[in-house]
Amino acid sequence: MIRALLREVSDTYADALSQTPPDPPIDLARARAQHAAYRETLAALGAEVVTLASDARFPDCCFVEDTAVMLDGVALLTRPGAPSRRGEVEAVAAALQHWVELETLDSPGILDGGDCLQLGRTLYVGRSARTDEAGIAGLRAAASRHGLSVVGVPLPAGVLHLKSVCSGLPDGRLLLAHGTLPPDAFAGVTVVPVPHGEAYAANTLCIGETVLVSAGFPAARQAVVDAGFAVRPLGTTEFQKADGALTCLSILV
Ligand code: CIR
Fold first, then answer.
1. pTM of model > 0.90
2. Residue 58 in contact with ligand 1 by CB distance below 6 A
3. C-alpha of residue 197 to centroid of ligand 1, in Å
4. Cα–Cα distance between 155 and 157 in angstroms, integer?
5. Whole-angstrom Cα distance, residue 239 to residue 14?
6. pLDDT of residue 106
7. What secondary structure, in 3-state letters, does 13-68 show?
8. Which tens digits make up the pLDDT trace of 61-119?
9. Is the CB of 65 under 6 A from ligand 1?
């Protein structure tokens, strides 16, 4: 049974961090409707969904992925790169402790879960504005205790997180937005390309053999279908406005 931890969209979500001020601005009611559809889809696919209450102090709190990284059934709590988001970890930790053991980052670094992607026994981690060398060192120390190796992937300017431009498919292949990262950063991994113009939709979420894909990106959807998987399109426009996508909205345990 997959468990999914989610967090409601905050009353202050319109103030969420964004690399570019959204135009039109975030529509809070629409964001909540999209979040509800996401939650219902996960449940319909058989996940046990737990949704935490939001906290108006944290506009970005629905993006729970950034607060913890699962390492073989243990949750490594992160130290998010954005200072305004550090306080989000507490409520997530309180919820996760009922399900799994918790570990903390034993370094003074910063690390966002959105920068972490596990394929097989390798954890790829983006070196970004949100994840630094010390954060990667802390991740490596924790991962090695679980027999996982860590490979750093430098991200180009403007790419918020590693998983802003790629995500894993159910069979371990990598869905990667063409022209964003060199495929040889993922040596030995088979890459399924998404056209550059649909880079946003390279962030997908796998629930079993089904792949959730952002609605409105036909080439990305086709790439996943051609790769052999069932797709569920979901509206994510209000999360895209805050640089968020499908994986960001849950921690799968
Ligand atoms: C932020 O800038 O932190 C949020 N507005 C978006 C975080 C998206 N999270 C993710 O990709 N894992």
1. yes
2. no
3. 20
4. 7
5. 10
6. 81
7. HHHCCCCCCCCCCCCHHHHHHHHHHHHHHHHHCCCEEEEECCCCCCCCCCCHHHHE
8. 999 999 999 999 999 999 999 999 999 999 999 999 999 999 999 878 999 999 999 99
9. yes
